[in-house]
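Why do we bother with holo predictions? Because pocket geometry can differ from the apo form. Keep that in mind while you read this record for (R)-mevalonate.
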Amino acid sequence: MTVSSAPGKVYLFGEHAVVYGEPAVPCAIERRARVTVERRDDDRVRVNADDLTLDGFTVAWGGESDAPELNVPNNLVEAAMGYLDGAVEQARDAAEAPDAGLDISVESDIPLGAGLGSSAAVVVAAIDAAARELGTELGREALADRAFRVEHDVQDGQASRADTFCSTMGGAVRVQGDDRRQLDEVGNLPFVVGYDGGAGDTGELVAGVRELRDRHPFAADTVEAIGDLVWEGETLLQGEDTPLDELGQLMNFNHGLLSALGVSARSLDSMVWAAREAGAYGAKLTGAGGGGCIVVLDDSEGAKTALDYTPGCEEAFRAELDTDGVRRES
Ligand code: MEV
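The structure, written out:
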């Protein structure tokens, strides 16, 4: 039996624009997906997911029927299965064991489809655990690359490397096209996350931005403007003492530009305003948008307390930067 875990992430800056070659800075946070894998005697794959902010589900495929048997009809479950199916294929390919059967169990404290990188964390942990169970240890770059291929396929070729690279490496990272690296010496970033209990459809939201960008020059300019502010933010991050007020102001700009691209939502906007009015340095949606989470920069109790009382905010929590990335638990 082999167990790996990988962290979720928040986007300090740059989601959506990163899909078009602009830079982005995601930061891994201490909320993890843990995947346990055990080899089977046959060629079937069986997945058990107890805690993906759903009631849990069990799926089996392979053997005589290729169609998964699903005991919970849910589009989020279907999406999760697409990622796991891809992860199994990558692990089998890496281990040169195309017919290996696997029992997979997923536990996660990252809400699904809410902008905290749940799919990337599950894919990274699943490939790592399954490949090791089949006798192959992947280096981090190779693991991130295989995880990216899964996201890229599942999201119809519209994924960037940002989520999967960040989840594999941990810490704050910078991704621009194929260029990706960890940002050293990033100090403590006092993140608070607000979660509206909902989810967005990443594929649909990315396709929507693409369509807007193709149709309106303002949208193409907006994507470029996001890229410009990421450059500024990155410089601030790597200076001696990061000025949190300036970083927060750039987060506010970034949220405004994402709203202009049509990916915010009323629940996200009201959480963002509640956090700002409570004195946070800055607040923005994180991830694909449409619903899910915001990320706030605040070193006082103000924003978290305000979010606790904001109608539509289901949960608010502090999120520490996770510097580990993928972890081999056993
Ligand atoms: C989704 O977590 C982030 C997006 O930028 C898509 C991607 O980078 O693949 C919206």
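The mean pLDDT is 92.
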